[in-house]
Amino acid sequence: MAVIEFRVDRALGLPAYLQLVRQVREALRLGWLRPGDRLPTVRDVVASSGVNANTVLKAYRELEHAGLVEARQGSGTFVRASLGSVDAAVMAGLRDRLTEWVTAARAAGLEDEDVDALMRAVLAGETDNRVEGA
């Protein structure tokens, strides 16, 4: 049974419940959560992240509405579906390579915002926008 520890960054500018939803979706994509795994209780999430119980309930309801989890009366909230479609070994290898790249980027002086901007540009398929001959 996998365990997820939620982190809420108040400076992120994203509502706390959406941060929780995003973290569950990412854990599902990465294979860290699988169908049948139990999510932490609302009480545990409140204690570890400092968010309001209604915030956690809102996140869990959104995940349930998306068909990713199901609430079982008296038992908790359980993962129903997976989002990952890539073999776990392939994902682990890619994660290792990305970790090496991020380490090199930080050694080169890039900050998290720089890495994020570069990653978003690559994901969007943007090419090098430098002016030729400049």
From TrEMBL:
<protein>
    <submittedName>
        <fullName>GntR family transcriptional regulator</fullName>
    </submittedName>
</protein>
<keyword id="KW-0804">Transcription</keyword>
<keyword id="KW-0238">DNA-binding</keyword>
<dbReference type="Pfam" id="PF00392">
    <property type="entry name" value="GntR"/>
</dbReference>
<dbReference type="InterPro" id="IPR000524">
    <property type="entry name" value="Tscrpt_reg_HTH_GntR"/>
</dbReference>
<feature type="domain" description="HTH gntR-type">
    <location>
        <begin position="14"/>
        <end position="82"/>
    </location>
</feature>
<keyword id="KW-0805">Transcription regulation</keyword>
<dbReference type="InterPro" id="IPR036388">
    <property type="entry name" value="WH-like_DNA-bd_sf"/>
</dbReference>
<dbReference type="InterPro" id="IPR036390">
    <property type="entry name" value="WH_DNA-bd_sf"/>
</dbReference>
